């Protein structure tokens, strides 16, 4: 257990952007590339700083589907 500062990250803007794309036709099963920031001190977590719709696998970026991306951001927002 970490006795340091509470982990929190505000994904409100990224969630809103993603939900807008879903409303425009992006599917929960579509693949996206995730850009992550630096690891948060004291935690094994690198926050999402951006995401991109992709057809290929960009070098150095994590790939996931839209549904998993949305779940992670909503779960992290619930800690905020």
Describe what you observe in this structure.
The chain is of the alpha+beta class and 80 residues long. It has one domain. It contains 2 helices and 3 strands; from the N terminus they run H-E-E-E-H. It has a 3-stranded antiparallel β-sheet, covered by helices on one side. The chain starts with 11 loop residues before the first helix and ends with a helix.
In short:
The protein is of the alpha+beta class. The chain is built from two helices and three strands.
> Strands across the major sheet, in which order?
2-1-3
Largest sheet: 3 strands, antiparallel
Distance between the termini: 18 Å
**Shape designation:** globular
Beta-strand percent range:
15-25%
Total beta-strand segments? 3
Please give the share of residues in helix: 25-40%
Number of helices: 2
Number of domains: 1
**Which residues sit in consecutive blocks of at least 5 with pLDDT less than 50?**
none
Structural class, by secondary structure, is alpha+beta
What tags apply to this protein structure?
80 residues, alpha+beta, globular, three-stranded antiparallel beta sheet
Would you spell out the secondary-structure blueprint of this structure?
Layout: H1 12-23, E1 31-36, E2 48-53, E3 62-65, H2 66-79
Antiparallel strand pairs: 1-2, 1-3
Helix pairs in contact: 1-2
């Amino acid at each position: 257990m970490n006795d340091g500062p509470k982990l929190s990250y505000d994904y409100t803007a990224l969630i809103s952007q993603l939900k807008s794309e879903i409303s425009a036709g992006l599917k929960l099963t579509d693949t996206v590339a995730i850009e992550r920031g630096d690891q948060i001190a004291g935690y094994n977590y690198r926050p999402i700083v951006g995401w991109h719709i992709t057809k290929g696998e960009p070098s150095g970026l994590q790939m996931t589907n839209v549904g998993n991306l949305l779940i992670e951001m909503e779960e992290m927002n619930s800690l905020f």
